[in-house]
Amino acid sequence: MHEFIPPATRFAPLPERFAMKRGGVLHGARVAYETFGQPSAAGDNVVLLLTGLSPDAHAASSPDDPAPGWWESMLGPGKPIDTDQWHVICVNSLGGCQGSTGPASRDPATGQPYRLGFPELSIEDIADAAANTVRHLGFDRLACVVGASMGGMSALALLARHPDLARSHISISAAAYSLPYSIAIRSLQREAIRSDPLWNDGQYLPERYPERGMLTARKIGMTTYRSAREWERRFGRERSGIGDAAFGLEFAVEFYLDHHARRFVRRFDPNSYLYLSRSMDWFDLGELCGGSTAEALARLRVDQALVIGTETDILFPLHQQREIADGLRAGGADVEFLALESDLGHDAFLADLDSFGPPAAKFLSAL
Amino acid sequence: MHEFIPPATRFAPLPERFAMKRGGVLHGARVAYETFGQPSAAGDNVVLLLTGLSPDAHAASSPDDPAPGWWESMLGPGKPIDTDQWHVICVNSLGGCQGSTGPASRDPATGQPYRLGFPELSIEDIADAAANTVRHLGFDRLACVVGASMGGMSALALLARHPDLARSHISISAAAYSLPYSIAIRSLQREAIRSDPLWNDGQYLPERYPERGMLTARKIGMTTYRSAREWERRFGRERSGIGDAAFGLEFAVEFYLDHHARRFVRRFDPNSYLYLSRSMDWFDLGELCGGSTAEALARLRVDQALVIGTETDILFPLHQQREIADGLRAGGADVEFLALESDLGHDAFLADLDSFGPPAAKFLSAL
Predict the structure, then answer these.
(1) What is the architecture of the domain spanning B183-275?
(2) Where is this site: Important for acyl-CoA specificity (chains A, B) (predicted)?
């Protein structure tokens, strides 16, 4: 598969031997990242941004790459995460396929892509790789670690495993562990990919990409990203085509799913999708810290935290964000918890910046 | 595919030429049904039961077939739908594959199974076929038409197209039209089936059944039948296996999905699944009656109705049952609306009989 690495992306080497939590070692691995804004002389204005499953390191436009990033409205000069003030590092998750070492990368031991030979990936590995990147760039203290969705899990893992690295945290639509509904959804996404004969146990050929499986996987995901209420308001029973005898697309909502899924596939390595997806199922902060979720959260050392979720999120339901807020507060952090009423569900942090921007800006300016 | 027709199932012929709503004609079609309890001399104790997508006509055990039926706890002597009092007719939906004419049936014009040559199926056709069956059995007036899930749609269509047939209605977890979330879920289920190479555009061979696609389709459905809350309570993060490098099953919820999906496939014709699924997407009572949903419901002629839904149903959300209740009431019916708090979601009518039984019994005994 052709790698889609944004042009301003740079690379931080991991230690020559990078041990993975569940076993296995990566040799000569790297993490792709982009930076936005300038570090202060004291290096005390660094914000680390950890992403969801699919985004790359190009969170926003910059002088080196003017193309809009995936969090363009949130990040930049004068924006809620104000790069006139903050030096933001956004990393592509380890195991991803947009520049960081992952299943599509060359295994130095064989000279061939890892594919399913990539070691089992955990959220903790993603967190360790991100922490390594921060240190490689010369910083040993973050003003804030920001994580949304899977990135919120990675941020919690980072706080647990690198307790002195960050002094504050913004947690967005995240969770301290995966619940069975989200595990089930991801299991079905993986099943869709694995069922595509072209996937070929991971050995798919670039010219025979398992598009069918990836499309279905993405569409299954999309049924959990917004909310039934938003779709009802937006699509209702609108038709965009004529139903045919072969059960093709007819309703607007079907075309919407298809359109967005097609924009996603072929840019993403199916094996990387499988690894990242499974890492989320496995994540359990309590298990990681050897105690209950509440105990594990209370042990995390941050001074301030902002925890945001939306009432309509079915993938990372609101009670999981409340749990993070309560746990961090029990540990002594000064925590603000925001339950947004947006009908944009899990995607609200990407689609409803009017709701997410101001509290994030206020939180950061008070640091 | 081998047809799984329960042993006590009987067959009612449809008119030699049965015209379908969206075009096309069935010749010599039939409807599979079972009856429970005895008709009164006056024939005034007849209850018609219309089913969801997958159940057959064997709703409960009977002298002719002691095997438990799909609504065993609800139907029988002394049960909520008391067959000591009521003569219950349960029909297998037209287009189904458990005895009624459907895509797996032989097309008399070719001598071969219809497969995708079956005419486009609508909920209205299912309703017409059921009404025909009632009349074939010698009844021109039903004490009650009971419909759950898709069967509730069929019941509304029957009330609209056969206005003098039923004097009361029990509507369970139903809807007057499909919303985009449920359309999306069903579209993905169909995509999973259609993507299975063994489906072969409907021409699958009995010995090469598209099991993979049907399993995925059923599992996608199952993510909408219960509720995230029930799964959280029931499975949490329990493991039932060991995760392997090939992304096999590990969490209890994954095994649950797989186990139940395997019980379903191979007993159901994939083409039938596609037709029934699409008929639900198309259903829109307002469109059928040429007006708004509220107007269409208010035009239905029933004296009494009981409308039940559950707060956790994501496939047929509660506001759709409230809409049915409000609409029937506006038309002059004496309507009881029950919003159950069960965490069993759309499946509550199958799994939480303690909640559904008593109100149904009370409603029927007051007729």
Answers:
(1) Orthogonal Bundle (1.10)
(2) 186
